[in-house]
Amino acid sequence: MIRMMAVYARNDCIVITASAVTSIGLWLESAPCIRLAPTASDHDLGAAARSILARSGQEIPQPDWKVTPPPGERTAERAGFRSWESLVRGALLVEVERNAEGVVLQPMRNRGPKSGFEALGPPIALSGDIPEAREFGARLREALKRSAT
Predict the structure, then answer these.
(1) Any idea where the domains of the chain sit in the sequence?
(2) What are phi and psi of 129, to 5 degrees?
(3) Closest to 92 (Cα-Cα) out of 149, 48, 135
(4) Which residues pair with 60 in a beta bridge?
(5) Residues in CB range of 126: below 8 A, 6 or more apart
(6) Per-residue pLDDT tens listing for the chain (149 residues)
(7) What is the pLDDT of residue 82?
(8) CATH code, residues 3-147
């Protein structure tokens, strides 16, 4: 089973959110969502990320876009922000995928609230199982630093 999550880093917090797959195969950020202090230790960051990744990948019904808020707005609300724009302004992002080969960390370039994010350079591939908490947190920070360039 593929599992995915997103890790946003801002000056005031780190937000980790799971992703779920809709019945037609579209991946959307979903609950659960954890908000950490930017000073969280590598161990705490890695432990939170491992927890979210373990709970991601659930199948959800395809949203009715006529009545459902846009995915970014729901992510912002879960993370305690008033809007998608306020969450992503100045944020760094790493998308994380757990698949049969290992874990892939993809640094993303922030193109602003209207344009979103795009992949930045090659992903960081970690073969095998999800690293232990401290190492996973350190690798996530490394990927977040790459997304700042």
Answers:
(1) 3-147
(2) -75, 170
(3) 149
(4) 22
(5) 102, 103, 104, 105, 139
(6) 899 999 999 999 999 999 999 989 989 999 999 999 999 999 999 999 999 999 999 999 888 888 888 888 989 999 999 999 999 999 999 999 999 999 999 999 999 988 999 999 999 999 999 999 999 999 999 999 999 87
(7) 95
(8) 3.40.1590.10
Name the one residue in this structure whose structure tokens are 């944020």: 91
- For residue 50 the two structure tokens come to 């491992």
Residue type, 10: R
Question: For residue 113, which amino acid is it?
Answer: P
